Amino acid sequence: MDIKKSLAAQAYAQTRSAVALEPPPNSAEDGAARFLGSFAETLSRGEETARAAMTGGADPHALVEALASSQTAVETVVTVRDRVVEAYQEILRMPV
């Protein structure tokens, strides 16, 4: 019985150390930077796929998939921007 507890404790310690290797974002700036980096990467992949499709290097299915993911990314960024503007306007309306 004691052996099982020590093995469980060792497995827990290994799992905890593996999870602790990736630190959480420290601020909203880090999260925003990762979000914008992902957005830029999605758009660049879509552009590369479109270029390849124009030269015959990509199939039409890949082109449609890249365009759909680019459209989703742009719609997401526009929605976030609208929410930020709304929040800013609400702050401006607050009485001092």
Automatic annotation (TrEMBL):
Keyword Transcription present in the record's keywords: the answer is no
Sorted alphabetically, which Pfam families does this protein's record hold?
Answer: FliE (PF02049)
**Domain of life of the source:** Bacteria
Q: Which GO biological-process labels does this protein carry?
A: bacterial-type flagellum-dependent cell motility
Kindly state one GO CC term assigned in the UniProt record.
bacterial-type flagellum basal body
Report keywords, A-Z.
Bacterial flagellum, Cell projection, Cilium, Flagellum
Which InterPro entries does this one have? FliE
User: Could you say which protein family the record assigns here?
Assistant: Belongs to the FliE family.
Protein name, as recorded: Flagellar hook-basal body complex protein FliE
Origin organism is Pseudotabrizicola alkalilacus
Lineage of source species: Bacteria, Pseudomonadati, Pseudomonadota, Alphaproteobacteria, Rhodobacterales
